[in-house]
Amino acid sequence: MNYFFEPTFVGNETEFQLSDSEFAHAKVLRLAIGDSISILNGKGTIANCVISEFTKKQLSVVVQKVETKENSKKLSLAVGILDNKDRFEFLIEKATELGVKDFYPLKTAYSAKESRVNHQRLEVKMISALKQSGNPFAMNIHPPRTIEELLSLEFDSIIVADISGTINPPQNNSTNQLIIIGPEGGLSISELHQLQLDTRVQLLQLPTNRLRAETAAIAVVSRYL
Fold first, then answer.
1. Do residues 203 and 125 share a domain?
2. Is the separation of the CB atoms in 141 and 103 below 8 Å?
3. Are residues 118 and 89 in the same domain?
């Protein structure tokens, strides 16, 4: 099934016309009248549609079935800004596929400069992964935040991957959880101290070889889905 991302799609439409960007995507796929596609609005709605019109300028569909998913668990991820943009974009793709709801580029003592974050480029990668995976929920990509700024937000629990943590995964009954992964150089002693002063924080040690930041993020998110 080919998925298209249309954030303006409400769910009560009987007919719908694709936006210019998704129309261009449809042309690349060489679709035709009568083909089936699915529309995602990023808010939990999946619409199964059939192409009713496909001209040189527009593509219209007839909506056949609409399903709305509920997302009872909110999993957020904060990762130290990486100097390698390709690896950061790879992480965005995988976090989207896994169902992360909010992503925070993390500014730390050892992270790359904030200027390395291209928000528009990350959004493009997120949308591409959303359509590839069929995930009905778009991931919110936030501006870079510091640890202090993250701790000011409302989370039920916070998991921090660090060598000083416990090997066994902390218990997780939270519906609004944040996972923090430091940059390649790790978190500083002062940053770890700041985190440990927050009663919501639990430290998790990954029982394996030293991992790249994006690999560690994927491994930890997979534990708490």
1. yes
2. yes
3. yes
CA distance 74 to 176: 5
Enter the tokens of residue 121: 């480029």
Per-residue pLDDT of the chain (225 residues; tens, 9 = 90+): 899 999 999 999 999 999 999 999 999 999 999 999 999 999 999 999 999 999 999 999 999 999 999 887 899 999 999 999 999 999 999 999 999 999 999 999 999 999 999 999 999 999 999 999 999 999 999 999 999 999 999 999 999 998 777 767 666 677 899 999 999 888 999 999 999 999 999 999 876 667 899 999 999 999 888
Helix (H), strand (E) counts: the chain: 6, 12
* 48 shares its domain with 86: no
Give the range of the structural domain holding residue 39, as residue numbers without chain letter. 2-68
The count of structural domains within the chain is 2
- DSSP code at position 7: T
Let me know: does 134 contact 3? Beta carbons within 8 Å.
yes
Buried b (16+ CB within 10 A) or exposed e, 47-63: bebebeebeeeebbbeb
80 and 189: one domain?
Answer: yes
